[in-house]
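I hope you will forgive my troubling you with a question about protein structure. I set the record out below, with my sincere thanks for your time.
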Amino acid sequence: MDKLQEKQAKITKQCGFHNDLVALGLGASAEIGELSDYIAKYSNLKKPKPGDDMSNLKDKIAYECADVLVYILQIANELGFNLEEVYDEKCIHLLERHKK
């Protein structure tokens, strides 16, 4: 994940993206909303609206996952934490909590 954070930092700089934390949080939230919408349609929990393109929903879900990841990587970079380390710690915590 370190490489992803480095790659995103370069893309952020090259594209001139703003690293305003509030905007990043709102952007991530919006992308999660879009992801949730596609998942609901894919799972038949939500009926499509007239005119909705229902083709390639898996591809749309994948693309929205990538959008969410971009925002998460930008947030991690902005706050200066190593997302891979935090993820590893979270995995240990989850495994401890859900031991069978």
In short: The two ends are 29 Å apart (CA to CA). Residues 57-79 form the longest helix (23 residues). The mean pLDDT is 93. Residues 2-97 form a domain with the Helix Hairpins fold (CATH 1.10.287.1080).
